[in-house]
Amino acid sequence: MSGEQRARSIDHTARLRASMWLTSQWVLAALPFGMAGLARAADPPALRFSDVTKASGVDFVTTSGKQPSREILEVDGNGVALFDFDRDGDLDLFVANGATTDDTENGPGSRMYLNAGDGTFKDVTADVGLKLKRWGMGVAVGDYDGDGWDDVYVTCFGPNVLLRNVGGKSLEDVSKAAGVDDSRWGTGCAFGDIDGDGDLDLYVVNYLDFDPRNPPSRSSFKGVTVMRGPHGLPKVQSVLYENLGDGRFKDVTADAGCIVKEPGYGLGVAMLDFDGDHRCDIFVANDSTPDFFFHNKGDRKFAEIGLLSGIAANIDGTTQASMGIGIADVDGNGLPDKFTVNFSSDTNTLHLNFPGPFFEDRTSQYGLGLISRPFLGWGTGFYDFDGDADEDLFIANGHVFPEAATQNIDSPYEQTPLLFERHGDRFERITDAASGEMIQRPTRGRGVAFGDIDGDGDIDMIMLILNGPITILRNEAPPRDWLIVSCNAGAKNPRGLGCKVEVTCDGKTQRRWIYGGGSFQSASAQYAHFGLGERSGRKASLRVTWSDGQTDLFDDVQAGSLLTIQCSEKRLQASPFKVVP
Fold first, then answer.
1. Given phi > 0 = left and psi -120 to 50 = alpha, else beta, which region is 212?
2. Which one, 345, 413, 443, 444, has the greatest CB density within 10 A?
3. Which residues pair with 352 in a beta bridge?
4. Are 572 and 565 a contacting pair, CB within 8 Å?
5. Are 487 and 501 spatial neighbours (Cβ–Cβ below 8 Å)?
6. Angle at alpha carbon of residue 375, lines to 377 and 320, rounded to 5°
7. Secondary element (H or E) of residue 358
8. 266-272 and 281-286: which strand pairing?
């Protein structure tokens, strides 16, 4: 064979291989949902979840109006919280339950479950004196009175409720005495220290004015008759409360500069230091109106710079229907980036955070844009579900319009969750059937809380379904090295809200923030979780930056440990490692 013939043969072979590869991609794309992943790999995926609700003993269907929904009050669903109510070392479960438009004050009631430590939960609602029957919406967790026990704040349609944790034995309603019983329609809420005095202040997001006895007329969306709202309904101001340190709060919304000329239809909130100046900022996710970014200037003063900083809208300058919030250092520059989930026929939005603060919409760059357009998102969070030293992403989805279908609104009513695995500079959607039936099951997903429920070192989930069962999803990832860091910033802030935690292992540094708010109307476990890769008994270095800017460094931290760092009058004490099997 001549050199020319050999060159033609090589070129033909290369083109044939390229053609075969391209054809294979089209074939895989054309396979039924989930089959493409099965065709690519025989090994079980690293991202796997199983629905263990039935075995857990949690048998409860939430209420949020009637099904199917007819009014905007009914569509948001409920909130859920994971926290250690009785301080026995595992995560317990609180569910803010709703009611119906016939009687918003007397629903089936919110629920409290204790984690038995063996994979099951016990309903202790009656035992702890929980009698909240009012239509509950969002949940925040924080030790507002500094007695060492996590308390619960619940936003409602009607007066909000502060439940004081009395020694892990009961929940006492102290709303009126504390001065936080705002009677408007509350949604998201979060605790955080806005003034640097060590105790936890509170931000409450309000949505709109709605009268269930006189609901608005019907509206139209893409030619389909649907419920009206939020457009056309009255907006209301949200509220910032300062903790006075004596069990009471003071409304400082106006004094702090958090009154806005044009309120938004508020749904979500995250309270953390976005720009590294050691002051707690406030991001508010608004529905169909610009998002707010209240930048903390110090001395209990804020400036709303959402539009100025670039975080109020997407790359096109379009405002979106923002709901759940995820926080992560996606680009590794040391600053917390912000992710919001939005309405269907739009994309979810990832804003990268740059010094300034200045935010840029890089949604498409990371593969999170076009793929999200058919979905309407709610609860969300970045967590390293597979323990490979980078954070993955979960989104619960479901439409608000029961009339929704692909044929008329380009989006179905019941929708599958979205599970993404981080691969380098992209997020790739997981559809393999082996990753769990839950990612292929269309639901009316709403609030989600994240945390290690079973004590095996990986992150599990509690997902709520609109007028559906509480769903417990256990992480079945293969065993890998991990580290969980809990920060005690003192008697007034024992969960370390406002702390930044960095872990360096094998030359790679990961960062997490312990903050209030985030996933839609829900509260996740308040600690920092790190996956460290394949199990090898490795060690890591750990740096904690406290909310006042002080930093502490630990070397030779053993993987597979739950580490509690205690801040004391002497600045820092580290408790012994607790190894969880």
1. alpha
2. 444
3. 360
4. yes
5. yes
6. 60
7. strand 358-361
8. antiparallel
Q: What are phi and psi of 242, to 5 degrees?
A: -95, 135
Identify the H or E element spanning 251: strand 249-251
Per-residue H/E/C for 138-168: EEEEECCCCCCCCEEEEEEECCCEEEEEECC
Structure confidence at residue 44 (pLDDT): 67
Report which of 331, 330, 313 is spatially closest to residue 322, judged by C-alpha positions.
313
Q: Which is nearest to 77 in space by CA: 155, 172, 159, 181?
A: 155
| Residues 37, 40, 46, 47, Cα dihedral to 10° | -10
DSSP β-ladder status, 358-361 and 161-166: unpaired
The one-letter amino acid code at 460 reads D
Torsion angle in degrees (nearest 10) through CA of 23, 24, 27, 33:
-150
Q: 223 is written with which tokens?
A: 């030619």
The separation between CA 320 and the C-alpha centre of its own chain, rounded to angstroms, equals 18
**pLDDT value, residue 572:** 40
Q: How far from 423 is each of 51, 77, 177, 392, 395, CA to CA, in Å?
A: 25, 33, 50, 9, 17
Q: Which residues contact 415 (CB under 8 A, 6 or more apart)?
A: 374, 375, 376, 397, 398, 399, 442, 443, 444, 445
Q: What is the pLDDT of residues 373-421, one digit of tens each?
A: 999 999 999 999 999 999 999 999 999 999 999 999 999 999 999 999 9
Residue 28 structure tokens: 């895989």
* Cα pseudo-dihedral 316, 317, 321, 326, rounded to 10: 80
The gap from C-alpha 416 to its chain's centroid, in whole angstroms, comes to: 17
Helix (H) or strand (E) holding 556: strand 551-558
Count of Cβ atoms closer than 10 Å to residue 316 Cβ: 9
Q: Residues of 446-455 as b/e, b for ≥16 C-beta within 10 angstroms?
A: bbbbbbbbbb
Q: What angle do CA 426, 428, 432 make, to 5 degrees?
A: 165
Q: In sequence order, what are the residues at sequence separation of 6 or more whose Cβ sits closer than 8 angstroms to the Cβ of residue 275?
A: 281, 295, 335, 353, 355, 356, 357
Measured CA to CA, the distance from residue 325 to residue 382 in angstroms comes to 10
Q: Kindly indicate the confidence band of residue 290, based on its pLDDT and cuts at 50, 70 and 90.
A: very high
Contact 176, 255 (CB under 8 A): no
What is the per-residue pLDDT for 537? 79
> What's the pLDDT at 536?
85
Question: How far apart are the C-alpha atoms of 453 and 296, rounded to whole Å?
Answer: 34
Give the end-to-end CA distance of the chain in Å, rounded to a whole number.
65
Q: What is the pTM of this model?
A: 0.91
Q: Which two tokens stand for residue 34?
A: 């989930």
- What Rg, from alpha-carbon coordinates, does the chain have? 24
